[in-house]
């Protein structure tokens, strides 16, 4: 019995030792497996025998909850058959089976996740089990999915662009990739393009090959961007290509790859050519336009062996055709004239449309004897009837010409001279005139008139103010506004240099309105800024005086500026009184508004004392020519007579142009009331007038 107990004790001790050793190994295995981030699962073909902490965390259950559970519970139903077949092959020790498997699983909360499993078959406790190492690939798979989606989207975008993208491995001398648009650009199957490294060079237009080759030799210097032509392989058309090539270098600065894009810019080129054509041609007639004419003349002046004739052709009374027969008829007529001009000119030169009904012809290498003959032929051809909409229309033209190398030394003067000659011819209608130097004054006036038309818009005018004084006390009693023109090239111009041209051209009304507007706003400014304010008089031209809008314009600006009408005055000349009835009516309206009227330059023009006594005027201004004669018996007598006349009509008298102390003394002795002139002050700019006159006199 005792022996038996000893044996049992020994057995129990041995077993205990093995058990202890087993438990130590188990604890060590669990500690190691729990420290690993990947999930470790030991399972049969149906049941989980062991799972580490990472496996429980991956599935989302408490520790030890997986043991004894059917592993199919955590696998997506659609993947069960794949997993079952895979495990079956594993148990049958099929060496061909891939130990790696990707499946989709289900967490305890129902959410899905992706895992990658690596498994091995082993024997544990005398039974075959599977040891699986699982890694959560959900984030990685999501990234891969997003990457694939982006890649597909990018490929679709690239393939739908009109830009071809390509890449060449320089070492292997092989095209690595090319996008689908390359096929359309070159007119060739994409596969053929990829196979033939030199295909793109073979289709370059023969005239461009050498230039492209030279450009390619500079690739090591950096990005190459150039344009060339190709022969489209499908249509055989010439296409324009823009090629951007980027060299890729390795760390040793060696060229290893070329990346680039190609764009078919054929339409862009054609559009540019069309725009270029429109920029230098008249849209209606197809003739060259003024810009093109000037460009050609500039080029011709560099190489002229003989005379060049420039003709300006202006159709007479063409506006009447537009007004009576319509603009469509007028356009057809202009087109027919253009065709006739091209026929007449032929290979001798070229024709251009300058705008409206004005054309120009340039004939090179023509001698003076041939000029008259050519112009006569031109005039005769233009007079032939023109059939438009079953109507026979007859036109004439006024032609002005100038000869390069005789009349001028540069093309710009040639243009000016021809235009001046054409204006001279226009005065006679159906006539031609060649420029001569006697037309120089007309030229100056035309140039000045042209500038005058934009002077108001460009704010080139400026008002100067000349003060007027009471002769006895020296008290400031008013000022006269005098216009000046700050011409961009001719400098400071006085009214005597441009007012006559403004009158003749009809621009005087616009300029006159500008003066009235600016004087009123100047007075308004002086009042607002608390400057001492005196009445300001403005010169009215005859044309402006008889303008139907004069009274309404004056009333409007007075209402706009809210200044007293007594602060505004007008100076008129005696010539206004020729049409006494109309003049008197206008003057009455001005007086009713409250505006004073002075007769300027009195004694130099037409006047009737009978009319003068009946006109509602308030002042006579003695012309400076009479003031200059003061000191002589006749001079003093005339001035005395004017002063006596004025006082007899109860009018004030202002002597203008007073330049010396002697003149001032004489005028005071003759009974003159008021004076203005350089003896007191020259006309002053606004700022100087404010500083030295307004403040100094109050």
From TrEMBL:
Could you state one GO biological process linked to this protein? Answer: methylation
Q: Where is the EAL domain?
A: 445-697
Which of UniProt's keywords are assigned here?
Answer: Coiled coil, Methyltransferase, Transferase
EC? 2.1.1.80
Residues in PAS domain copies: 150-226
Q: What InterPro entries does the record point to?
A: Biofilm_reg_signaling, EAL_dom, EAL_sf, GGDEF_dom, Nucleotide_cyclase, PAC, PAS, PAS-assoc_C
MF annotations from Gene Ontology: protein-glutamate O-methyltransferase activity
Entries under CDD domains matching the protein: EAL, GGDEF, PAS
**GGDEF domain residues:** 306-437
Any coiled-coil ranges, and where? 133-160
Entry superkingdom? Bacteria
Domain PAC, chain residue ranges per copy: 224-277
Matching entries from SMART domains are given as: EAL (SM00052), GGDEF (SM00267), PAC (SM00086), PAS (SM00091)
Name of the protein in question: Diguanylate cyclase
Species this protein is from? Paenibacillus illinoisensis
Q: What is the lineage of its organism?
A: Bacteria, Bacillati, Bacillota, Bacilli, Bacillales
